[in-house]
Design goal:
Layout (H helix, E strand, L loop, with lengths): L36 H15 L7 E5 L3 H4 L9 E4 L5 H11 L4 E7 H5 L3 H9 L4 E7 L2 E2 L5 E2 L22 H8 L3 E6 L3 H13 L3 E7 L15 H6 L25 E5 L5 E6 L9 H13 L2 E9 L6 H5 L11 H4 L3 H10 L2
Parallel strand pairs: 1-2, 1-3, 3-4, 4-8, 7-8, 10-11
Antiparallel strand pairs: 5-6, 7-11, 9-10
Helix pairs in contact: 1-7, 3-5
């Protein structure tokens, strides 16, 4: 069975400066589990681009492999898109950015795609300061391969098999800060009042903008003892075939003032304590951001908001002094200047 988004929209829907409605920023119908935090992130990207009056054809969206990497299909259907192999999205984004610097690049990844197989790629995209928005939809599990612990799973967190994670988690925001990322933010998928402005600030930033978004997984973060849990349904189904059934779950949302904390109950009954930065925080101090992350972690709290931003950032094109003309627009005479120019270049290295 196929599903399509209805083409009809209310004629009085709000329009942005381009005359577009949010419909013009939508994508295909999501095939993720109902209530997945990833869909909330897609909705936030749609709203952010709509409010900023960004022309969809000016956006290139890229991803790797995983539940998170499926999500570019669900937003900005009129944009350019490329779904790369597992963990290799940053190098594809780098190459595309070098070829055409005039596009807005949005890369979507997950905790597996970024913190495991793609860690090396992530590191070099940060240090090169590629001009892009890099969103990690972090749910702490390998959802596409049935819920194994990921590299960001908290120490002692119990998996669906009932085994606690024995390994320390990777804190992607801290790593990004230490590598020299020029924009670092942490947020929660259900807090749209915080997430949308963060995405807009990342889009406006020149350089590598990293956003780690905690995104609850409804399938592998549910209550083991519940009769609505995935395992229970599997064990009590009367069927001649093995059918994967994911019960409907409600999206987890939250909204709380800056400078305060909020306890959010996840689908498995565990509680995550979020603390939203207040406006007093100095977002220009990398050391302060790293210290605050560590201090709040010691209190079992997760710090959210824009942690660091370098407004004087130089992206990879400024660092490497590349041509202002996109490579895709250069002609044969610029790309192949002839043997005389080649000899002159060789002489410089003799």
């Amino acid at each position: 069975m196929s599903y399509k988004i209805p083409t009809f929209r209310h004629p009085n829907l709000p329009k942005n400066d381009l005359g577009y409605t949010t419909k013009d920023y939508e994508g295909a119908v999501s095939t993720l589990c109902a209530g997945c935090g990833h869909d909330s992130i897609s909705a936030a990207i749609i709203e952010a681009c709509f409010e900023m009056s960004i022309e969809p054809h000016r956006v290139a969206k890229l991803s790797g492999i995983g539940c998170s990497s499926k999500t570019p299909t669900y937003f900005l259907g009129n944009s350019h898109g490329f779904n790369s192999v597992h963990g290799r999205m940053p190098s594809v984004a780098t190459g595309a950015n070098m070829a055409n610097r005039n596009l807005l690049y949005i890369g979507v990844s997950g905790d597996g795609d970024t913190a495991s197989i793609g860690m090396g790629q992530f590191v070099h995209a940060v240090r090169r300061n590629v001009n892009m928005v890099y969103i990690c939809e972090n749910n702490g599990v390998y959802g596409l391969t049935k819920g194994q612990d990921s590299a960001t799973t908290d120490l002692g967190s119990t998996s669906k098999k009932g085994e606690p994670n024995p390994l320390e988690p990777i804190d992607l925001c801290s790593i990004a800060l230490q590598l020299g990322a020029t924009f670092v933010a942490n947020s929660f998928s259900g807090d749209k009042h915080q997430l949308i402005p963060i995405i807009q600030a990342a889009i406006a930033h020149r350089g590598f903008a990293f956003i780690n978004v905690i995104s609850p997984c409804v399938t592998f973060n549910n209550v083991p003892g519940s009769t609505k849990a995935y395992d229970y349904i599997r064990q009590h189904m009367a069927s001649t075939n093995t059918v994967d059934y994911v019960p409907h779950a409600e999206e987890i949302t939250t909204d709380y003032p800056e400078g305060t904390s909020e306890n959010v109950t996840m689908h498995d009954g565990s509680v995550i304590s979020l603390h939203k930065l207040d406006t007093e925080h100095d977002v220009h101090s990398r050391r302060s951001a790293l210290t605050m992350i560590k201090d709040y972690k010691a209190q079992d709290k997760v710090l959210t908001g824009i942690l660091f931003m370098d407004e004087q950032s130089k992206d990879i094109h400024e660092i490497m002094n590349t041509t202002t003309t996109p490579l895709r627009n250069l002609g044969i005479s610029e790309l192949c200047p002839g043997t005389e120019q080649l000899e002159a270049i060789n002489e410089l290295h003799r």
